[in-house]
Protein 1
Amino acid sequence: MEILAFGVQSDEKPLMEKAFEGHHDVRCLDVFLNEDTAPIAAGYEIISSSVNATLNNRVLQTLAAGGTQLIAQRSTGFNNIDLQVAERLGLTVARVSSYSPYSVAEFAWTLAMAVNRRIVRASNRTRDFDFRLDGLMGRDLRGRTVGVLGTGRIGEAFTRIAHGFGMRLLGWDAVPNPACVELGMEYVEKDRLLAEADLVSLHVPLLPSTQHLIDADALRVMKDDAILVNSSRGGLIDTEALVVELRAGRFTGVGLDVYEAEAGLFFLDKSLEVVADDTLARLVTFPNVVVTSHQAYYTVDAVAQIIETTVQNVLDYTEGRRSENVLVPAVAKT
């Protein structure tokens, strides 16, 4: 059987082909799955989608009409998939429940340190042989307070690094993580965390209950000189409200690896086009903001684990097994 994989980056393609070798053939496409590209999947029983795919009602209808039975998403998040429609159409949907938490946690710290120590600005200056230090002053993190919103596997990995820096640890989650408590983390209400933290990092999934978790009210509670990092999902932050606060001169730095309207932008080369997203255009102009294109997960270790799990999800489907990765069950063909 041949699997059709959408949104495969050039670095991922050899890993994908090697992982499927001896199991199934795989056809890798660099285009993302959306309403325009969904017809390409006609005749493919199994397709694999990437995190920036659009799997709404229309796309799912097209896939089902073309004979698709399994959607194997290569990500942990699945907020881009209309699961109710998929279930109604009899589609099986699987995801990657977990992969290396260190890739995202370490990148979140990369963003935090980049904005704290003005790394991007310093690098740009030295390229022009401007070696002044004016405007590059950062601050020690040791002894300061970090607030971690979401203390699952990634949040825990982030917390362990914060503990290594010698920071005071505040956490917010529905259920405390014993490993974080052992490190000395104090679990508090969200507003208290935001009010006391010098660095706030987001590590919660995007759900209806967490949409705009950091809204205008939450931003106003934060310290004027706080650092805000989001390496989870763009919809966790009300970006319009964030721009308002940045225009008012607030925050030492903001590091964003995700953006709530990133679909159709991130992972693509838009350098020769006029980007019509005014909010993003304003966001990237602030000297204390660093925006990257959803690359926190992008290490050879994490990507290899994601692909290995995706292959296993395909094998489980074709061999009639179920696993915790299945979001929407359906009867598999054998």
Note: The first strand starts at residue 2 and ends at 5.
Protein 2
Amino acid sequence: MFGLSQRGKPQGKSRLGAGLSVVLAAMFALAMAFAAPARAQDTRLPVGVSFSILADIVKSVGGDRVDVTALVGPDQDTHTYEPTPADVAKLSGTRLFFVNGLGFEGWLPRLMKSSHYPGQLVTVTKGLKPRTMVDDGKAVTDPHMFQDPERVKTMVDNIAAALSQADPAGASYYAERAKNYRGALDDLIKWADKQLAAIPPSRRVVLTSHDAFGYLGQRFGIKFLAPEGVSTQSEASAKDVANLIRLIRRTGIRAVFMENISNPRLVERIAHDARVTVDGKLYSDALSKNPEATTYLQLFQYNIRALATAMKDNR
């Protein structure tokens, strides 16, 4: 279902290359799997979602029975987002508000306090054990669980359970869609394993903007280096930047990426000083406005394909 060609290094739109038709076919097959009809109803269940990636997953489970409103849109940074009065108005009409939790939405406590939200707050990472990481010398929780499709399956179950509780008449509909989506995630993991199989562990090293890919790295044996910490609000120290430049020069790392939500200047500076070329961008905390990553499944495919191609050039 997810078997795609890896020929050539992706650049811009050409990264999709000949694999575009296969991706679209996979998306169509998934859509057909979700074709179970919803009960005709005059009003869909209104739900709010904190950011674009999670909004797509909620839509995939909720289908025609939900009306999804996302606060942080495509190519926007959830870490630095500042809620507005318009966000309070958006939430006031929803019955559920789905969030990642684990500190990913640092603005969430302020929003909840100012909005007096009357609905149910649903943390989709509930029941999952987070990984810890060192950020600025301190042990912190990594909130980016959505970068691991295996963990996303539990998030899907949590979403289906919350929707079913709020809309009991749609419980079987949500359960069927959740089952289909978990199957698509299983296929995605198998596909990713095949794309990465030919790359030796010693070459599975990548430099990117902030430390958002730890769960992906843990699942697929990739080491991610980042000048910024777990949040894009972190500031890279001159010492850390210098250490990264020396590491790239010494080890022959060539897989260097910026992110769709981050200012590219720091990564470009590191790449210039280390005498390497930036391979392009990865989609970290948001979907894209362009056609490359408008769904979570597309985002993950794009990232894996780009990573696999770039890591082959590592020495």
Note: DSSP finds ten helices and ten strands in the chain.
Protein 3
Amino acid sequence: MPRKITDLDQLTEHADVLLCDVWGVIHNGVNPFPLSVEALKAARARGQAVILITNSPRPAQGVIRQFETIGVDPECWDDIVTSGDVTRQLVSEGPKQIYFLGPERDMALVEGLDVELVDPGAAKAVLCTGLFDDETEQAENYRSLLQGFKARDLPFICANPDRVVERGDRLVPCAGAIADLYAELGGETRIAGKPHAPIYREAMARAQALRAGVDKSRTLAIGDGASTDIRGALDNGFEAVFIARGIHARHYISGRATDETRLQAFLDAEGLAPAFWMEWLA
């Protein structure tokens, strides 16, 4: 069982850098979590560098604008690295004729890139940031479209590897769910966000710019997503702090409490061994 902690300051001597997830840890897409925001502000005041590392398909400026809209205090982070930021490199290295699968609000992802957005039939690659309407659709709605792409062996660039994300008190599907379906059909997926290495390399480069000499042994990754945040941390050589009251809570929450036996069973089933766990980031 990972060690349970109740306050982030218990790990002050353990880490110089915190790589912290956003959705499900700092906010739920509608409201910020005040205790989490204050915990990160306090960590910065103690001298720890806080790099927010998110699978948002938007470049960092889009995340900052969302923070401003819902009221996340900008003093809780030093820098932000998004899946959108590192996905731009994948897009620039790929075919130029791209079918953009996702809501119009994510179009900033391709601004300034030498690509042409085309209809499905003319595409040489697919760039997916999410569902067109994640309030009413599921990945399965895209099966026939994906089958057509697979028949032509188009690479599928996924800008948001998350399968689901919290929006208020609901879970809504993300681009990762569509990428999973494309892979199931035998298609090629290209992903740079969590749990893959490119986003962690970029996050550590940002940390080095803030604190020369930092390394993985003095870095903690914090998140609520088992297959993205925690798997990514462990696969890339970081110790992890699992936030229990996130997208997986239904697996082990009993009433208002976390059933630690069920939590351990969940982590075992996922093949994960984070060093620490918390109910909430606080």
Note: The chain has a mean pLDDT of 97.
